């Protein structure tokens, strides 16, 4: 399922579990890379919403954008993780739809998700150690980051669970994120 609302499509930063513009139950779908750039709103500490930021190449060099997002995550008391996906990836869309599930919210607690489309960023991914074929590279894939915005080599991909339903995805994701939270 692809969300087609123009208003939602231009919003590239959302907070899972919070009201997302006009429809509080809608979780953002993968974005068309031609749409508007990121503008991350401030989130008060203690907010249970999960920040999800989509970065686009017209915003600048990937390493610089990642450094900015790491700083934003730290300011919110959260740990940043890269989520690699693609607009054509059915498993990525299933993950998106699951974010409103309470099990997934619990699994993602304390995280700050930075989405990168592998097709859009393929030229720059290797420069920051998010190389195709690294570790458990299955879309969607999550990568732990260092404070400079580079991959640590610790990753979990869609191959870590069976069907793309919260009951299957949440347990391995929760374990991965808990093992790699900075705080």
Explain how this protein is built.
The chain has a domain at 47-151 and 167-183: Glutaredoxin (3-Layer(aba) Sandwich), CATH 3.40.30.10. The protein has 6 helices and 6 strands, in the order αββαβααβαββα. It has helices spanning 6-9, 62-75, 90-98, 102-107, 118-125, 166-180, and strands at residues 13-16, 50-54, 79-85, 111-117, 141-145, 151-157. Strand 5 (141-145) and strand 6 form a beta hairpin.
Helix content: 25-40%
- Main sheet: which strands, in order across? 1-2-4-3-5-6
Rough outline = globular
> DSSP helix count?
6
How far apart the termini lie comes to: 35 Å
- Proportion of β residues? 15-25%
Mind telling me the C-alpha Rg? 15 Å
Q: In the CATH hierarchy, what is the superfamily of the domain at 47-151 and 167-183?
A: Glutaredoxin
User: What order do the helices and strands follow?
Assistant: HEEHEHHEHEEH
> Mind telling me the CATH class of the domain at 47-151 and 167-183?
Alpha Beta
CATH topology of the domain at 47-151 and 167-183: Glutaredoxin
- What is the architecture of the domain at 47-151 and 167-183 at the second tier of CATH? 3-Layer(aba) Sandwich
Structural class: alpha/beta
Mean pLDDT: 75
């Amino acid at each position: 399922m692809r969300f087609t609302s123009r208003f939602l499509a231009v919003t590239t930063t959302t907070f899972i579990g919070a009201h997302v513009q006009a429809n509080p139950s809608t979780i953002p779908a993968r974005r068309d890379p031609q749409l508007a750039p990121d503008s991350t709103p401030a989130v008060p500490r203690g907010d249970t919403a999960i920040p999800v930021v989509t970065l686009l190449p017209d915003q600048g060099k990937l390493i610089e954008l990642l450094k900015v997002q790491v700083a934003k995550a730290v300011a919110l008391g959260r740990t940043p993780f890269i989520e690699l996906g693609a607009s054509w990836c059915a498993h990525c869309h299933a993950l998106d739809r699951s974010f409103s599930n309470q099990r997934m919210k619990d699994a993602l607690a304390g995280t700050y998700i930075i989405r990168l489309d592998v097709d859009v960023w393929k030229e720059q991914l290797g420069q920051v150690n998010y190389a195709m074929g690294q570790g458990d590279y299955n879309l969607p894939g999550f990568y732990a980051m260092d404070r400079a915005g580079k991959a640590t080599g610790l990753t979990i991909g869609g191959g870590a669970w069976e069907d793309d339903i919260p009951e299957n995805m949440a347990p391995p994701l929760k374990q991965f994120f808990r093992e790699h939270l900075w705080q």
